[in-house]
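Final report, Chapter 2: Outcomes

The project's central promise was a pipeline that accepts a single protein chain and returns its three-dimensional structure in a standardized token representation, suitable for archiving and comparison. That pipeline is now operational. To close this chapter, we reproduce one record exactly as it appears in the project archive, with the input sequence first and the structure output second.
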Amino acid sequence: MGLIQIDSVNVLVRSQELPLFARLGPHPRTLISQATAAGELFEYWVHEASHVPTEAHHLHRWRMTREHKWERFWDLAKRRPGFIEEVLQRIEIDGPIASGDLGERVGKKGQWWDWDDGKVALEHLFWTGEVTATRRPADFARLYDLSARVLPAEVLARPTPDENDARKQLLLLAARHHGVATFTDLTDYHRQKNAPCKPLLDELVEDGALQQVQVEGWDKPAYLHPEAKLPRRIDACAFLSPFDPVCWNRDRTERLFGFHYRIEIYTPAPKRVYGYYVLPILWGDSLVGRLDLKADRANRTLLVQGAYAEPGVPTDELAPDVVRELRAMAGWLDLDGVSLGARGDLASTLRRVAGHYAAV
């Protein structure tokens, strides 16, 4: 993984914590905040809002120097000239602030992207890299501070490559993380545009930095990183966040695993097929099912509100691994136990297996 996508939905746990649990199992839930405090990670708009290694900071500076197309920024600059500079000066003098500290909102907050002038100013400064952000533990709000006060000096002193060189390095990183990928897989990883990257990809192939290959069943050429290890086998059972790099690209997930997956958080409840917060189940080298999970913190219970297996999956073999992983997750979240609901074709097998374990 080259980055961790951030999402604020907390029905189970903040989504950025789940990729670590999938790979490490139970671990200190302070790892991300500690890595940020140690200058190993920084937050930026990469694959949406993401935690990114600071060693790659210089590869994203070309974005910071580009003028964004936010109408709200240009409207603010026109209505309140000098306001953004005033906000930056306040941070310089007073230290890190959250958007609420600016006291700009009038009336009740509306939709998620209903930003007041203070938030627009802070997000502009965040985009340009003049400030960076950490997260306030209590409410997950961004705390904005000068990048020079947060990021290591050696990171900021690293030379800035030109845009084409940075884009090529990001394509190579995406190839390393993917192993094998189509062109659009590579650009999607760091949310790059296809048009400026196509000639750069051709250069990488011509230079031998990437190998063009054909994957059986894919209708587009693929690209292999020369250091990709083949063959590999994964022997694991893990639950993947909707924003895990394994499944955030829905088209790629379907090509690789034959697994059709859509996030239903924003789907009206009567129209949901699987549930509100559904995690794909990785078992061995396949995505074999999905779980609708919720942390009932008041009752200290991990709720399995739905459990589904893909056609042909041997559920009697799968269920013990899923039950063990559910119990490990409950302990990691400091919950006392797991409650298995009845919805889904995998549910009855999970209940039977869990009951057997309890009786032993």
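Archive annotation: The longest helix spans residues 315-332.
This record, like all others produced under the grant, will remain available to the consortium after the project formally closes.
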